[in-house]
Write a structure and sequence with these properties.
The complex is a heterodimer of chains A (342) and B (232).
Chain A: H1 3-26, H2 35-39, H3 47-66, H4 71-88, H5 96-113, H6 115-138, H7 149-159, H8 172-195, H9 202-224, H10 228-261, H11 268-301, H12 308-328, H13 336-341
Helix pairs in contact in A: 1-3, 1-4, 3-4, 5-11, 5-12, 6-9, 6-10, 8-9, 8-10, 8-11, 9-10, 10-11, 10-12
Chain B: E1 7-10, E2 16-19, H1 24-49, H2 53-69, H3 71-76, H4 84-88, E3 91-95, H5 103-111, H6 113-117, H7 123-131, H8 138-143, E4 145-149, H9 173-184, H10 191-200, H11 212-224
Antiparallel strand pairs in B: 1-2, 3-4
The chains are: A mainly alpha (342), B mainly alpha (232).
């Protein structure tokens, strides 16, 4: 068969596909340039016919390539199949239903799927925290290894009983400013903790240990200086969201790093892609938790007029809720799973 | 073909789509444009919000955060699949299967900017792009995305009309393809160059004298299926 014959035989089919694609792509663009075409009432787009046309064009493209037909012919078929491919394989499942599925099932499930990374991340965060916290509690001067004297004085003045202390003189507008600051700073930190995993996990390990050391140091220092209650009542509530979220993003980062170091039966790039696809679900949840943490930190934790006992109570409740959510939410109900499968 | 940086993606139907990945320079330029757009938006928000005191400053910080991390995500998920800067340079973000980018992939590639930026000025991202044929930065590797040119270049057009004539000897498929490809490029090459190439193929044209270009075009017409002298 000559290219000419091939083209004359199949051109009507390509024209039909072209017209169908134009219609499908223009459906989402209300602007109609061709006024006469807009006036004519046309039958609805036939999906089955479109799929058939697409498969035929794919066949034609394969033939044209194998027989080395003129390049303008193959290029026309290439662009035609590419457009149809994009249209046919595009995804539809966005929107609120997807979000609900994410919050109720996907995020907690994927957190549990990463349980070993989570354990590693927790240890990397908690062990340095305890060690440095103990060291600074024994000897408050140890804080000078982590921060200079001026910063240490700032910690003191933030949590002491003086009038300028944190949360004493704050009004509503300062709360809003602090909310903005926490969103920018803390979520950015979470993202860095995740992205650092790309360097064989070293970045995530660094951020986890660094944050653990710093948090432990400040906590130990303030406890030793006698500001313990002010500090812990401030931290306890938003810590439920913030500390868990930082550890979770660290765990997601470790997942990336592990995929690069031990790709298993995939190539390293494939393993990384696969791991990122899983880990990003955790990051969605981390974003939500860090926004919640920023709101709690700005509007609740800083309220000094609340009794510490109330804050401890609410804080404990938040910790229990977060851990229960991550631990049990999204598990199939007993019995129903087997029923669905059958 | 090995000279080109074409990236082929195979579809479930077993055909290969070719995508043209965009290199470092257009992507850096697009980034610059996006940076100035973001800066402009930030300045506009700051002018509006600063009079509102603490709440305004809070809003400003949140908007800074959103511009920093989610500005590309929002634009990539829209129909064009590109930020304003990328659109300006004719670029587009797609999955490496040739499909429109998914939310998960777009968020992955943009959060991992932090790794690409490390240690300064996108050093890791640039090195990764320069080392790879498909110019992926680290975020693209993890997200499975690709930055490509939206338009395909048409280097080949219709064959110019010429009276069809049979070649002097039977031609192998690769020879046939070469001659037809040569004729397809007629509109892009200068006549002198076209003729220079045609003279090289003198041995297969029926007459060894006369206009080499016209004769070889005739052979090309014969090869694509024209038989009776005229062009159609």
């Amino acid at each position: 068969m000559t290219p000419l014959l091939f083209e004359t035989q199949n051109a009507p089919l390509w024209k039909e596909l072209e017209a169908a694609l134009d219609r499908a792509e223009n459906k989402r663009l209300p602007k109609q340039h061709d006024k006469t075409a807009a006036k004519v009432k046309r039958p609805p787009l036939d999906g089955a016919r479109l799929a058939e046309l697409y498969r035929r064009s794919c066949e034609h493209l394969a033939l044209a390539q194998a027989r080395a037909y003129p390049i303008h012919l193959t290029q026309r078929l290439e662009s035609l199949t590419q457009r149809a491919h994009r249209l046919i394989y595009r995804r539809h499942d966005y929107g609120l239903g997807r979000l609900k599925q994410l919050v109720l099932v996907d995020f907690p499930q994927s957190v549990r799927a990463h349980r070993w990374y989570l354990l590693a991340a927790t240890l990397l965060f908690v062990l340095p925290m305890i060690a440095v916290g103990w060291a600074t509690w024994r000897d408050p001067g140890f804080i000078l290894h982590l921060a200079d004297a001026q910063q240490a004085q700032e910690f003191d003045s933030m949590y002491d009983e003086s009038a300028s202390a944190f949360g004493r003189t704050r009004d509503a507008s300062t709360d809003w400013q602090m909310f903005g600051y926490y969103v920018m700073h803390n979520i950015g930190l979470g993202f860095q903790c995740f992205a650092g995993g790309l360097f064989a996990g070293i970045g995530s390990v660094f951020f986890l240990v660094f944050n653990g050391v710093f948090f432990g140091g400040v906590a130990g220092y303030l406890t030793a200086r006698g500001h313990g209650e002010n500090f812990y009542s401030f931290v306890v509530t938003h810590g439920a969201f913030e500390l868990t979220a930082i550890v979770l993003s660290g765990a997601a980062g470790l997942r990336l790093g592990y995929a690069l170091l031990a790709p298993g039966r995939r190539t390293r790039v494939e393993a990384l892609k696969h791991a990122a696809g899983d880990a990003i679900t955790v990051i969605y949840g981390v974003i939500g938790m860090l926004v919640a943490a920023a709101a709690v930190e700005a509007f609740w934790s800083s309220a000094r007029w609340l009794e510490p006992a109330v804050k401890y109570g609410v804080g404990a409740l938040c910790w229990a809720l977060v851990l229960a959510y991550l631990g049990w939410q999204g598990r199939p109900a007993k019995g129903s799973g087997a029923h669905d499968a059958g | 073909m090995s000279l080109d940086t074409l990236y082929t993606a195979e579809t479930p139907e077993g055909i290969a789509l070719s995508l043209r990945p965009a290199g470092v320079v257009p992507r850096v330029l697009a980034y610059m444009v996006d940076l100035s757009v973001r800066l402009g938006i930030y300045l506009a928000i700051s002018m509006v919000s600063v009079p509102f005191g603490g709440m305004g400053r809070g809003l400003l910080l949140v908007s800074y955060f959103l511009l920093e991390w989610f500005y590309p995500v929002v634009f990539e998920l829209m129909r064009a699949g590109a930020t304003p800067g990328k659109r300006m340079f004719g670029l587009q973000v797609v999955m490496d299967s040739g499909l429109p980018v998914t939310p998960a992939a777009s968020i992955t590639r943009n959060l991992l900017r932090a790794a690409d930026f490390f240690p300064f000025l996108y050093a890791f991202g640039l090195v990764s792009m320069l080392l790879r044929r498909d110019f992926k930065r680290l975020g693209d590797l993890a997200g499975g995305t690709l930055v490509v040119y939206r338009e395909t270049v048409a280097l080949h057009g219709e064959l110019p009309a010429a009276p069809a004539m049979a070649p002097a000897r039977a031609l192998a498929p690769s020879e046939q393809a070469a001659i037809v490809a040569w004729a397809g490029r007629a509109s892009r090459l200068t006549p002198a160059r076209l003729d220079e190439l045609a003279v090289l193929a003198r041995s297969i044209t029926p007459n060894h004298a006369g206009d080499a270009t016209q004769q070889l075009l005739g052979v090309a017409q014969w090869l694509v299926g024209h038989r009776r002298g005229g062009s159609r």
